[in-house]
Please model this.
Amino acid sequence: MATVQQLHSTLQQHLTIPIHQGEYWYGGCVMDGPVYPFTQGSDYQLDMIHLNTPNQVAPAFISTAGRALWSAQPFNLQVKGNDLEIAGRSTLYLDESGHNLKDAQQTLARQTFTLGKMPPAEFFKLAQWNDWIELMYKQNQADVLKYAHGIVDHGFAPGIIMIDDLWAEYYGRWEFSIRKFPDAKGMVQELHDMGFKVMVWTCPFVTPDTPEYHDLRDQHMLIEKADGTPVIREWWNGYGALLDLSNPKTYAWYKHALTKLQTETGVDGFKFDAGDAKFYDDDDRSVMQLSKTEQTQLWGEFGLEFPYNEYRVNFKNQGAPLVNRLQDKSFEWGVNGLSELIPDTLTQGLLGYYYNCPDMIGGGEYTSFLGKKGHLDQELIVRSAQCAALMAMMQFSVAPWRVLDKEHLDLCIQAAKLHHDYADYIIALAQNAAKTGEPITRPMAYEYPETPLAFAKTQFMLGAKLLVAPVLEKGAAHKTIYFPAGKWQSIHDTHDVVTGGGEKDVPVDLSTLPAYQKID
Model:
């Protein structure tokens, strides 16, 4: 029988948990994926209470020794020598009944995940499209349709398409700008006729000195300062007031605004951006007097009203049918680029954010694309597409046909087709995740605890059957892969069978995405 220790703590009372010899820990903060796992002597600390991360956070850690640590509230954690030192706001739970990483993750799922439902299958079936890199802040009907037609005209299948920021006149008026979209309903219908599902960008900010702002302010439906006036916070698009979604009137107002847009134009869902804890303060006044992390949690919970949703930030809400993407990555091979897609994605999965998207192919950090017309690294875009092809979801933004020559474009089409070829398998894994809490993309150590640590961030398992080892280095002619014991057959060549039990150098060229299925 499992034994769960309840470790009561305050921020003034420190708790110490010894790290076992050879034990490695994952969890906490998705953005810290590249530094996971940590162990004895690691230089790692995480202050969840004051954390300003642009991605998902869960108050939980799990280890390769089968131990699971969690709490209902954020806590601080630091490795000191051979110990974990922890201080929290509420009861900490430590379960030591497991033997390996899978045991620990499944304990966490049983104790903290919301199971039972997954997002619509369309998220997993085909490559998604977001017009952000192409249109940026110049959203308009003509160019949205041009982008959509470019997708199908160049050999890609229509999937979900997202219309990004500035399709409305300002924040808080969630209606298509008539200047930019003279016939929004007709546009959405045309996109539907082409085979697309349509999502649009939204956020919890309200532009000051607008009719919506004045109305919300007068009814005390915005987050306020102690004197009862709305807080005005700086964010990446200037300054804005914040919806108090803990107020039932505000919640109903926002839901009505979005459902009205759906009814009038036919859009299918919403990309929910912002909501970061850094935009809130624990001293803010709200109806339920929520902390900054609880505001982020509530922002995520709101998305459950809309099956077609996407989030960049979340606190808790693990296992819920919410699509969680990675933060905007840079157009880079290394730091904050391609090399971080695997560790970040695996951290998402272990924590329960397994309905995940590894950001836009090539990266969603738009400044990486400014002033580079004709000078983009085409190989990086191909490798980014290949890396995402056998993950839960893949999403394009920069138009491959605009920035790639025929050779590289064909390889991106091939990567998108590969994702579609494995859609039934991926959807089955998503269905399993909804039932059990098991990740879709999994660390090697989840299925094969004996995997050397050197391979923890360069390859992964898609479910229990498929080993995927994307090429992550520019100009690579080979990829060193660890094959667990057994026979592994290449998904590209049935005659290519590897007998596992160690590592092997596999030759690669630009067209190669090393992936193997266990056949015994």
